[in-house]
Amino acid sequence: MTGAAGQIGYALPFRIASGEMLGKDQPVILQMLELPLEKAQAALKGVMMELEDCAFPLLADMIGTSDPLVAFKDVQQAQLVGAKPRGPGMERKDLLLENAKIFTEQGSAIGQRVTMGVVSDGSHDIPEGMIHGMPRTCAGGKWEVVKSLEIDAFSREKMDATLQELREERDGVKHLFA
C-alpha cells in the first residue's frame, strides 16, 4: 500500500493486519511504500514498529520501502492512498499533475492486471450483461477477462453479495424503464 505513514493511510495497515479487510483467516504480508524522504521513511518505520507491537496473528511479514518495484512485487491487492498534499500557493492543476506522475509510476510498477467494472461476458459466474467489477488485463488499449484466476471462498462471498446488491438496485428502478 502507498501512504501507510500518511494522514489518510495510517489506519489502513492496522485494519488489514487485523483481518477486517480481507477476512479473519487471511494471512497478509504488508508491503508499504512511502516517499524517499527521511521524515516519511522514519514515520513508516514507526508504523511498522506499532504493527509489530500489536502482534497481529495474521501479519506474516512487513516490507517498508521507497521503491515502487519492491513495494508492488508479487502483490495480489494494492491500495494506493498516498498522494502529495496541496502546498501553499499550489493551484489545483499543479497538484493534479504532480499526483498524476506519482500514480503513473506506481501503476507501472503494479503491472497490467486490474479490476474493472465492465459488462460481464458470463465469466466468474457473473451473469452475462451485468456490469460488475472483475479481474482484467490491459495492454495496447484493450482489455480481456482473466479467466484462469481462482476465486477463493472469501472473494466469492463478497462477489455474490455485490451481485445481489446490483440485482436489487436494478430491480428497484426497472419500472422506470418499462
Question: Would you give an account of this structure?
Answer:
- By secondary structure, the protein is α+β, with helices and mostly antiparallel strands.
- It has five helices and five strands, in the order αβαβααβββα.
- The chain has helices spanning 12-18, 38-54, 68-71, 92-110, 153-173, and strands at 28-33, 59-65, 113-119, 131-139, 142-145.
- The strands form two sheets. Strands 3-4-5 form a three-stranded antiparallel β-sheet.
- The chain is globular, with a radius of gyration of 19 Å.
- The mean pLDDT is 88.
Summarize this entry quickly.
This protein is an alpha+beta fold. The chain has five helices and five strands, in the order H-E-H-E-H-H-E-E-E-H. The longest helix has 21 residues, at 153-173.
CATH class of the largest domain: Alpha Beta
Largest sheet, if any?
3 strands, antiparallel
Helix count, DSSP H or I runs of 4 or more residues: 5
- Spatial strand arrangement across the major sheet: 3-4-5
- N-end to C-end Cα span: 45 Å
Strand content: 15-25%
* CATH second-level architecture of the largest domain: 3-Layer(aba) Sandwich
Average pLDDT figure: 88
What's the CATH H-level superfamily name of the largest domain? NAD(P)-binding Rossmann-like Domain
- Over all CA atoms, what is the radius of gyration? 19 Å
Total tally of structural domains: 2
Secondary structure category: alpha+beta
**CATH domain topology of the largest domain:** Rossmann fold
How many strand segments?
5
H/E element order:
HEHEHHEEEH
Low-confidence runs of at least 5 consecutive residues: none
The helix content is 25-40%
Overall shape: it is globular
